[in-house]
Design a protein that fits this description.
The protein has one domain. It is α+β, with helices and mostly antiparallel strands and 70 residues long. The chain is built from 2 helices and 3 strands, in the order E-H-E-E-H.
Length: 70
């Protein structure tokens, strides 16, 4: 029997009322990639000038143990 892959997710909204610069988006994506996150979606919430990034990565054994503790 194989073990099911568990994922952890990270949602981050960047920018301000004046918008989000491409360099800020690129820097954020590069930083997340260096931490092992794979970006699955990047979108602008309606009526917003901010950018929301959704990412996932395989759940580490350490994180799995922490989440199973009461």
């Amino acid at each position: 029997m194989t073990e099911t892959q568990l994922w952890e997710y990270h949602v981050l909204t960047i920018g301000n009322v004046f918008g989000t610069k491409d360099q800020q988006i690129q820097d954020t994506l590069n930083e997340m990639g260096a931490q092992g996150w794979e970006v699955t979606h990047v979108y602008t919430p309606s009526q917003s000038s901010k950018v929301t990034i959704v990412a996932k990565r395989p759940m580490s054994e350490r994180t799995r143990r922490q989440r199973s503790m009461p």
